[in-house]
Amino acid sequence: MKIAIIGKGGVGKTTIAACLARIIGRDGYKVIAVDADPSLNLAASLGIPKNIALEAPVLFNEEEFIKSRTLLPDGLYIMNPKVDDIIEKFGVKGPDNVTLIKFGEIKSGGTRCLCPEYSFLRALFSHLVLGRKDVVIFDMVAGLEHMSRGTIKGVNLVLCIVEPNVKAIDVAIQMKKLAEDLQLKNFNIVVNKVRCKDDVKLVENLLGPPFSIIPYDENVVEADKLGLSLLDYAPNSKVIKAIIELKENIFGHKYI
Fold first, then answer.
1. Averaging pLDDT over each range in 78-82, 175-179, 219-223, which range is the top one?
2. Total-model pTM
């Protein structure tokens, strides 16, 4: 089962990705949590101690390693580089059967061709989506670029996180259109930070019925201030209960 979590920046993707990963892991599944956002906040949201998270390598900072896997002596690059050992080499063990891997970002090379890096990225995504039996949850970079590149094509489920405001909804509308163009199956809206029924109606009128609704909760703000996982800080909070329902909804639709 492979889940991509997408949306505008600041809508709560990372909190939802981290809590969902651990809640699924508690059911006995092995979960790989992929931090594909350059801000690299997923470790803290998972409850991985800061010193351990900082020691963990960021995959796309390892330029020499990627070159060794992708470049040939004559300047050509390998279209299908070896990636089946990446989780074992770069993964960090977290709580509740979760392994974190930090992607980071592919840095612009000026006039240099970035084809080797993108070849490596495509091969790694393909391996994670098709080559592993684990549950994989991708906390994607904010915005549309990863979708326009077709990076997440092949996942079983896309959760588009949206806040009840016009800017977040506009981005979600664009993402929904791109998902249709890419023929991504199981694109679903999750409304986050809901304070009242009108919040849900606003999103529903423009994007259709949501797959899941997650309420606003000050515990999220407090956990972020302290750099703690919400699941550890407030395990009985409204948000955690809603994410447990989200997990059950995913299981109920037989996505897993």
1. 219-223
2. 0.91
